[in-house]
Amino acid sequence: MHKWYDREGNNSDVVISSRVRLARNTTEYPFSVKITPEEGENLVDRVLECISDSEYAADMEIKRMNGIGDNQRHLLYEQQSINRYMAGRKDGAAAISHDGGLSIMVNSEDHIRIQAMKAGMDMEACLKSANIYDDFLEEHFSYAFSEKYGYHTTFPTNVGTGMRAAYMLHLPVLANTKKLQLLAGELGRFGVRMTACFGDGMNGMGDIFQIANQRTLGQTEEDIIHNLDSVVKQIIRQERELRKNFVDSGRIKAEDEAYKSYGVLKYSRCLSLKNAMVLLSEIRLGLCSGTIRFKDADDFSVYAMMLAIQPRTLQYNTAREKSMSVEEVDVARAKYIRDNLPELEE
Questions:
Q1: Is a pLDDT exceeding 90 seen at residue 32?
Q2: How many domains, in total, are found in the chain?
Q3: Which of 11, 83, 98, 334 has the most CB atoms within 10 Å of its CB?
């Protein structure tokens, strides 16, 4: 089955994905900082039993963290099906849809975290999908909720709706100007934060950035989405204008950069993650700008390749029992790209 990131959606030239995450806790167990291993195990069993006995079971795959290896846990994190916190522990579990677009994490930072992802810009569809599972679980568990503060969460910043909405954007031209740092600094005034998706803070790889709401209290879910959409639409407009100017001011140079990046990717025998992400970002820009084209590659996704070349994903997919050295991972990365990068259109 195709994964959500193999597809395209609204404004996919800039917007890679939309994501909604709902944080929920029950009144039946202490919060994560105080829950005992026995209570955590009981919570996991009850939630998974609920899902397994429901009409949703056929669409979900259950992953108990204590039943899978370290590499697979980190692969699930690199594929964005679980968060970093869960990847580092063994007393939680996740129910993940076959396309990876929906995951229910149990005994993570909160008792239950429901995450829905879609390709392109479609936050309302994400919220609708997350709410289906939220309503279902609320029929079986008593959520910690008050009229004054909304949903009670482990982190005070999530109190209220308990919702984090985030867009993932590819901003290769903005990232090469001073405007991006200025823009990131301004977003706080709108209750929005920008961070690099592959890295820390604003120092990331692949020119991919997450734009997410910071406030959840005193706003409705619709307010959060409307505010975030308004900000992201402005960023999309700026990136598209800069891309157009980049190509119009020197098409030969723009084509040359894309073709050089393709050549390095297609024939390298050893590639670091940073170099590969930079080159793939330039390929994606070239494809979206029309300066480079692939033959018979309607189902090819540059972003899917970015995920596939992450270290733990490579390690897991090569079925190596022992940990691979940095050089071995770099060699495996280069081979994967050579084998899966489509041929150029003449």
A1: no
A2: 2
A3: 334
